[in-house]
Amino acid sequence: SHAILNRGTLCIKDSSGNGKIIASKTNTSALRNAAVCVIEGGTFTRADGEDNKWHTVENFGTMTFNGGKVIADDGKSFAIVNGWNYIPVPGEQKATMTINNIEMTAGPNGFKNCAGGTLTMNDGTLHCTGYWGLSNDSTGVATINGGKIISDTYIAISDGGAKMEINGGTFIAPQGSLYVQSWAKDTVVKGGSYQNETVDFMQKYCPEGYTATLKDDMVVVSKN
User: Fold this and answer.
1) Average pLDDT over residues 146-152
2) Strands 210-215 and 192-195: what pairing?
3) 3-state DSSP helix/strand/coil % of the chain, to nearest 5
4) Which 3 state secondary structure label does DSSP give 83?
5) First-to-last CA distance in the chain?
6) 64-102 pLDDT, tens per residue?
7) Which of 27, 41, 134, 214 lies in the 20 to 30 Å Cα band around 224?
């Protein structure tokens, strides 16, 4: 089974400074939350093994990151999944995640906010080697207030969900910072710094009273 399957109220701390929670077999997570979980520290990862593949952290309840590291390098799975990926949401159930601080490194896939998922990111780093640092999909709702989202080889953020609002943060990737899928419902940009984007593209998603400007190699969005 999962290394930790939480159906209660759980706080994870790392008093030693080098604690690890490790998923050891395929189709299991280092942490699957179905209730209330607060993460203050620790490293969440997978054991080495060709067939040991699955998302490292899964949230189907209420989860808050105030620290900790998530490492995923199985070459296939997402490091973190918030909500229901490829399966329907059971009724009106929601998965809510707040990130106040985190260090996520993933190869190639980063964070996926899925059906029924509500994500608020205030700080921390989401870093992937391949595709999206953050993918907002299906009925996912994402609010980004700060932090860094990085993709080493592709695009930092994909928005194909119900709503995404970006109020701040730094977004770095060689092929662009933001990709808005054709089926995205509502994308609003009120702040942030974006690498490898154009002023015209970012201005399309700025509401009245906000302006995109070029500063060095970044497009910066700010209030007038």
Assistant:
1) 98
2) unpaired
3) 0, 50, 45
4) coil
5) 52
6) 999 999 999 888 899 999 999 877 777 777 999 999 999
7) 134
